[in-house]
From TrEMBL:
It comes from Celeribacter persicus. One of its GO terms (molecular function) is catalytic activity. A motif (Histidine triad motif) lies at residues 108-112. Residues 10-125 form the HIT domain. It holds the Pfam family HIT. InterPro entries: Histidine_triad_CS, Histidine_triad_HIT, HIT-like, HIT-like_sf. The active site is at H110. This is Histidine triad (HIT) family protein.
Length: 125
């Protein structure tokens, strides 16, 4: 299935510098910044710099270097935010949504990293 990427989505605009964001972390292939509507004390969005619609698009189309950089960057952000156990934190949750049934709001692959306090149940009805 081909993935249509909308280059006018908010994350694409952030990556082009059209909308400001305060980076928490940046690498060659990844950008992380605070969510504008945080749900926990620590709530950071981690996005690849490439034009990927969702998780399955990313793992099918991104290079090995992009994928490795992205997932290592997620771990680095958890450490920087102090929520990783390796940094003395008590853990964190990663959430990614893919498609309409998941309520994906921005059509650019991203991970929500949440922590700094208990996250509660995994799924709510």
């Amino acid at each position: 299935m081909p993935y249509a990427y909308d280059d006018q989505n908010i994350f694409a605009k952030i990556l082009r510098g059209e909308i400001p964001a305060k980076p928490v972390f940046e690498s060659e292939h990844t950008l992380a910044f605070p969510d504008i509507s945080p749900k926990k004390k620590a709530h950071v969005l981690v996005i690849p710099k490439g034009p990927y619609r969702c998780y399955d698009h990313f793992v099918q189309a991104a290079s090995d270097a992009e994928q490795l950089d992205f997932f290592k960057s997620v771990a680095k952000v958890a450490e920087l935010m102090g929520v990783a156990e390796s940094a003395g934190g008590e853990g964190f949750r990663l959430i990614t949504n893919s498609g309409a049934h998941s309520h994906q709001e921005v059509p650019h692959f991203h991970v929500h990293l949440l922590g700094g306090e208990p996250c509660g149940p995994l799924v709510c009805d």
